[in-house]
Amino acid sequence: MAFEDLLEDPVIQKYLHELVGPTGMPVAAAPPDGEVTDEELAEELDLELNDVRRALFILYENDLASYRRLRDEDSGWLTYLWTFEYDNIPENLEEEMYRLHDALEDRREYERNHEFYLCEICSIRFEFGEAMDFGFECPECGSPVESMDNNRLVDAMDDRLDDLEDELNIDADA
User: Fold this and answer.
1) How far is CA 97 from CA 94, 112, 141, 161, in A?
2) How far apart are CA 170 and CA 174, in angstroms?
């Protein structure tokens, strides 16, 4: 898939934005063809060099950019030539979805296996043991904490897990 096609996808735009943040997004959204130096990118995009370097390093850590070093014969200075490798984005997104699935499954089990109490004034939630330690009173405001029904939360997690399993072709019964 070409850079241009990938960058038109809102999911991929969001993924890149989450990785590099708003200051690094111009770097991620404008990958040049071929190799480029960080200085060239900074000048072309009118960005601070440190912001460009930060974005490039984050892309590198996520296998979306690579570099090769050249040493200047006279000065001994190193020049880094960067190449963007956005072909890895779909695979990275799939890995993220698997991580999200696993974390959501763990959280759902935690929610199912614990009893919670809520201070409706402070909106603080306590596990049963914490609520008991506080005498079923909120330590912030002193009002009684009430048993909390988290079935809607668990149901929402079930729905999201079903969606992820459909997307990832995971057999939930396996």
Assistant:
1) 5, 22, 40, 10
2) 8
Rounded Cα distance, 170 and 155, in Å: 19
CB atoms within 10 A of CB 168: 12
| Domain ranges, ordered by start, for the chain | 3-84, 90-168
Identify the band that residue 56 occupies on the pLDDT scale cut at 50, 70 and 90.
very high
Tens of pLDDT, residues 112-152: 999 999 999 999 999 999 999 999 999 999 999 999 999 99
Name the nearest CA neighbour of 165 among 102, 73, 114, 109: 102
Q: What is the pLDDT of residue 170?
A: 80
CATH class for the domain made up of 3-84: mainly alpha
